[in-house]
Structures are given as C-alpha cells and as structure tokens.
Known about the structure:
Layout: H1 5-8, H2 16-33, E1 39-43, E2 47-51, E3 65-68, H3 70-78, H4 83-88, E4 92-95
Helix pairs in contact: 2-3
Amino acid sequence: xxxxxxxxxxxEQPDRATVATAVRLSLRTLxxxxxxxxxxxxxxxxxxxxxxxxxxxxxGNPPNVVETDPRTWLELAAGRLQWTDAVAAGRVxxxxxxxxxxxxxxxxxLGTDV
Length: 114
C-alpha cells in the first residue's frame, strides 16, 4: 500500500504493475481477514477474491458481488474513503445481503500526512 500512497493522496499515478500488485495484495489480505466464499470482490482488470463466511457459491453468477475500480478499492482498503460514501457515489456496486464490506475496511491505514 505504501507504493500507491502518494497517488491516493493526489499525486501521480504509479505504473500499472505497482497498482496491480497493491490491488492483489490488499484483496489477498481481505480474504485472509474474512475467509469464506459467500462474497466475490472484483477489481478489474487485476483480481477477484471470494471471502466472508456464509453459504458457498458454486455455479453461475454469485449472489453477493462487490465490484469497483482499482483506485476506489485502494482508497477503501487504505481508509481514505468510507464504504458508504463510495456506494452512494456509485464508485462501488454491491449486490446481495452479504455484500456490505464496511465492517472489514480499512485493511491498512495510511497516515493522514501521506
């Protein structure tokens, strides 16, 4: 997350590989913090994970899906954006009864001076 912190604070966007790595590692952390298979979190084009305890999804479209862009995901993961604000602004789509990740975020806090 530190590699993308300047970007999230309004600086220049890092290269694609750096953004991809930050997305993948933060999603992997989410899956470790909330193991399970009832929610699929998608951050195209870089990664998707299943997480949160509950009924396991095995076929077709999952009933609980969260999808967002890389910057929004990283802002959420770093505590620079609130879940409710992101959903209200249409920056996150969340469908299903288990698709509210507000209790799981942020994953890592970046300093306010970053």
